[in-house]
Amino acid sequence: MRSFALAPIAAACLFVLASAAQADTAESLDKVVVTGNPLKSQVLAQPSDSLSGDQLVLNRAANLGDTLQGLAGVSATNFGPNASRPSIRGLDGDRVRILNNSGASVDASNLSFDHGVAIDPLVIDKVEVLRGAAALLYGGNAVGGVVNTLDNRIPRTLIRGLSGAAEMRLGGPSNDRSGAVVLDGGAGRPNDGWGWHADLSARDAGDQRTPRFDSPTDDGTESRTTVRNSASHNHSAALGGSVFFQGGYAGVSVDDFRTTYGTTVEDAAKIQMQRQRVATAGEWNTEDGPVRRLSWQLSRNRYEHSEVENGQVGTTFKSTGTDGRLELTHAPVGGLHGLVGVQWEGLDFSALGEEAFVPSTRTRNAGLFVLEQYRVGELQLSAGARHEQVRVNSSGDSDTSDGRFGMPQQRRFSPTSLAFSGVYGLAGGWSLSGNLNHTERAPAYYELFANGLHLATHAFERGDAHLGLERSRGADFGVKWEGERSHLHMNVYETRFSNYIALQANGQTVTGPEGDDLPVYVFQGVPARLRGVELEGRWQATGMFAVLAQFDAVRGENTQTGEPLPRLAPRRAMLGLEAQQGPWSARVEWRGAARQDRVDAFDQPTAGYGTVNASLARQLKLGELDGLWYLRLTNLGNKLAYNATAVPTIRDLSPQPGRAVMTGVQVRF
Fold first, then answer.
1. Do residues 436 and 475 lie in contact, with contact meaning Cβ atoms separated by under 8 Å?
2. Which one is predicted more confidently, 665 or 648?
3. Could you report the per-residue pLDDT of 474-497, keeping only the tens digit for each?
4. Rounded to the nearest 5°, which phi and psi values hold at 6?
5. CA-CA distance, 389 to 387, in Å (whole number)?
6. Where is this region: Disordered (predicted)?
7. How far is residue 5's CA from residue 275's CA, in Å, rounded to a whole number?
8. What pLDDT, on the 0 to 100 scale, is given for residue 6?
């Protein structure tokens, strides 16, 4: 099956590559941020990053978390090389919203660290990150930020004829063999035409190589140079199409993503995951009348994964989710430019099997939001509000016989979020920005109703059905300078939670399946504070060379006890040098992390480290074809390093990757 999945991709790549030989200048990168920017402002007050074009190709990893963890303020949960979710400013799980084309990406990655994100980085065109609270537009569970992956599965602009891209990648710490083909086409005129999209991808990877380390076993430790049970195999496919009319478009897409990967924390356990998604989206614009723009999107997701050990299915997780959104932009009124929107989400979740620690649940969320902007000279002000109605139902013991989930029950919540921001442009490319927000988040179903052994955390987790809203207030201030080929961005922030829903040990233990004592962790609301700084810059020293620098730090604690919040990234820094001459470009960088010794009572300090990475790339062109060949070298010193943001149960089993070489080619036509 794996060879069959890779064969058509390899053939298509080789067909396209056969003609690419000559050089061209580097392609320009699209830096316009659309996430959190429905009014299409040129400058966002909220800190944001985007990866696209050649930059995305060179940063792309096997999963979404590892693709983004080099950005300022963004780390990854790193539950082995296959399950890694982005963590933003010290917040992860249900506080970071993962989107696909601005719609919900339904999976179980927020429930458990060993559950992967059901998005293949190989086929996305762009990924955008909003750092800091984005609850106004995306709900209370975006208090930490938003990660939005963008593709062209629903064509939004008409492309006549045929265009596309093909990519092949070989090597890396997991001996990666992967490829993708993306095709777009269409006919007609922008106001009377149609377009289509198709993509196919596959990846086959072995166990991840690492520097030599001592891996814990049931009998002590063993010396290893690979992460046990970390191989993976996945493939995906999608089809989509749109019709274009006067002022807009309407389209639909279907996609299928499947993967099988080892869980690492267990020797022989694997997760078999699949997600199918049907989506529709459209937009209508006019220059007259009270309504200037109307946009909509609706998606239906079916997700399932089974945890398999020795050929037997132990537990099956299923989620069926629907996400709908409608936005209406009104004509300017007295200098105000804004929109009103509604969003509806539904999620049906079930976990059946011996390792299910959450009952079957139904979550329904309806939200109404408004956003208005006002501009006075160089000052742009934005203000908005969002109100939601959330219902979470537990089916109790309807799927079990041991009585641990109790009677069916329902909780209702009415979170309200407010935001105010401003951007002031100064002379010489400088600007100042500020954000103030009040965010309320309804507890997730597992925070309310969990009651069972969770192998990913090696603990017994217990929810609290009486939890109230998680409330926070945050402030973020930034300074930016944008030059022709240089820039400097700096942000400082603080978020205070009056009721931070934390998973904390209560001092009790239970007997595990192998007779060992496991700690009991309970979800409970505590006062907490997070604050940090992010600095990122680029200086074009000469026409050929540019100097890069980056620094971020986050500090968080339970303000009642003074205990640090769990899984916070240490202070991190990057220094790099880029060079470009004609079609050639190169980069060398040093990335360092300080020792993280501010940990909670049930964790261990993580040593600091520094690694050196390098890359070499060449632009290719022949006729209508252009592309990129690249060579990436990571961890050149083969430095042994551990990730402080990973849960303790996986950290010692899965160090950061060792020295590796990867090469690949992407061709666009």
1. yes
2. 665
3. 999 999 999 999 999 999 999 999
4. -80, -25
5. 7
6. 193-234, 387-408
7. 17
8. 43
